[in-house]
Amino acid sequence: MDFKHIEEKMDKTISVLQENLAEIRAGRANPAILNKIKVDYYGTPTPINQVAGISVPEARLIVIQPWDTNLLKEIEKEILKAEIGINPNNDGKVIRLVFPELNEERRKEIVKDIRKMAEESKVAIRSIRREGMDEVKEKQKSGEITEDEQKSGENQIQKITDNKIAEIDKVAEAKEKEVMSI
Q1: Which of 24, 40, 31, 50 lies closest to 76, judged by CA?
Q2: In the predicted model, is pLDDT for residue 101 greater than 80?
Q3: I need a labelling partner for 44 at 20 to 30 A (CA). Which of 10, 24, 122, 150 fits?
Q4: Quick check: 38 and 45 in contact, CB under 8 A?
Q5: Nearest residue to 118 via CA among 11, 6, 17, 16
Q6: Measured at the alpha carbon of residue 23, what is the angle toward residues 19 and 28, in degrees to the nearest 5?
Q7: Which own/partner pairs from 22-25 qualify as long-range (CB within 8 Å, at least 24 positions apart)?
Q8: pLDDT for 145-160, tens place per residue?
């Protein structure tokens, strides 16, 4: 039996986790924090990285330089609205986002959030596993596969699940180390 569709769903869950973890502010300037922020560009909501150059000249600084200086106020307004925890500094040419040093307490809070996100992803993976198991049981009931094939299929699904959960643990652990080592 082919379980590619189950594996693809699980991979998508992991990639969503990775995207969400990339947006976590870990004391280091990470342009991914701006990914979900859109500005009104001639009536169209447009991601900041499509209307401005974004650079990270220092470990705790992001510089946003819009190609159209008329967008400065709009970008500043949207960053404030997004509540990323950083106040933009607008000097009339560029916007600077200065990331403060993280204290120990804040780091521990971030690690808790990372663990919570990882656990939610594991729950999603297990849900996908349950769907796959139900699918295999249905096929066995309808006579499409034998009982041995059902057991084999369930074992395969469990192996895929175990691998994906281990992958989630690795991703979360790497992010936790990053947060705690800054």
Answers
A1: 40
A2: no
A3: 24
A4: yes
A5: 17
A6: 130
A7: 24/110, 24/113, 24/114, 24/175, 24/179, 25/84, 25/85, 25/86, 25/99, 25/110
A8: 898 999 999 999 999 9
Q: Minimum mean pLDDT among 59-68, 119-128, 163-172: which range? A: 59-68
Q: Do the Cβ atoms of 157 and 3 come closer than 8 Å?
A: yes
* Token code pair at residue 135: 């699918």
- Which letter, b or e, does each residue of 4-24 get, where b requires 16 or more Cβ atoms within 10 Å of its Cβ? eebbebbeebbeebbebbeeb
> What are the helix and strand counts (H, E) for the chain?
4, 6
Q: Which residues pair with 95 in a beta bridge?
A: 64, 90
Instruction: Decide: 25 and 37 in contact? Cβ < 8 Å.
Output: no
Region for residue 85 given its phi and psi (left: phi exceeds 0; alpha: psi -120 to 50; beta: otherwise): left
How many Å apart are CA 79 and CA 99, to the nearest integer? 14
